[in-house]
Amino acid sequence: MKKHLSSPILYVGEEPAGRHVPKLKLALAELMRSSVGTGHRRRLNKPYLEIRADGCWVWLRSKNLVGYGQCVLDGKKIIAHRFFFGFIKEPLIPGLTLDHLCYTRACCNPDHLEQVTHIENKRRAREHWNLKHPDKPWGYWKRKCRS
Questions:
Q1: What is the pLDDT of residue 97?
Q2: pLDDT at residue 31 above 70?
Q3: What is the pLDDT of residue 98?
Q4: Half-sphere exposure (Cβ direction) of 89: Cα atoms closer than 13 Å
Q5: Between the CA of residue 55 and those of 17, 52, 78, 83, 141, what are the distances in Å?
Q6: Residue 39 main-chain phi, psi, to 5 deg
Q7: Cβ 109 vs Cβ 55: under 8 Å
Q8: Where does the pLDDT of residue 32 fall: very low under 50, low under 70, confident under 90, or very high at 90 and above?
Q9: What is the pLDDT of residues 66-95, one digit of tens each?
Q10: Helix, strand, or coil (residue 3)
Q11: Mind giving me the DSSP string for 46-62?
Q12: Which of 84, 80, 81, 83 is nearest to 71 (CA)?
């Protein structure tokens, strides 16, 4: 594992070389510029992202209760993968949600995200659940005990 102390990125394996790398560095510079003076000194050297061998850009800083990365941009809390998708790939379309094709909630790689409707996102989640948990029905955690 290679850690660049001067960089906000933690690389696992080789450094990526791709079309998004220059924009990724610009996006991180924008986040760092926006967050100057909003944290404690001990967090200054903590990386923002871990770039894994499978291609995921995993958010290492604050996460919400369900595991999505969150950051502050110009004083407003935003979801990290939405920021990176909009900054690097294409503008976000109102009414659509981002589906993680890699099923890693903290992943911010725009190549692992796709804009879809909420219904399509739920359909894909159910399909993925059924493949991973064939013995448990979808939504079993929501059912109340009737005894």
A1: 93
A2: yes
A3: 94
A4: 16
A5: 11, 5, 23, 18, 31
A6: -140, 180
A7: yes
A8: confident
A9: 899 998 888 888 899 999 999 888 899 999
A10: strand
A11: S-SEEE-TTS-EEE-S-
A12: 80
3-class DSSP assignment, residue 113: strand
Helix or strand run (H / E) with residue 78: strand 76-79
Neighbouring CB atoms inside 10 A of 100's CB total 21
Contact, 61 vs 71, CB < 8 A?
Answer: yes
Task: Report which residue type is found at 118.
Answer: H
Lowest mean pLDDT among 16-20, 64-68, 69-73, 123-127: 16-20
CA distance 79 to 82: 6
- If residue 131 lies in a helix (H) or strand (E), which one and from where to where? helix 118-132
Instruction: Give residue 65's pLDDT.
Output: 92
For the chain, domain boundaries: 2-138
Q: 2-138: which CATH architecture? A: Alpha-Beta Complex (3.90)
Residues 6 or more apart from 49 whose CB is under 8 A from it? Answer: 8, 9, 10, 28, 57, 58, 59, 60, 108
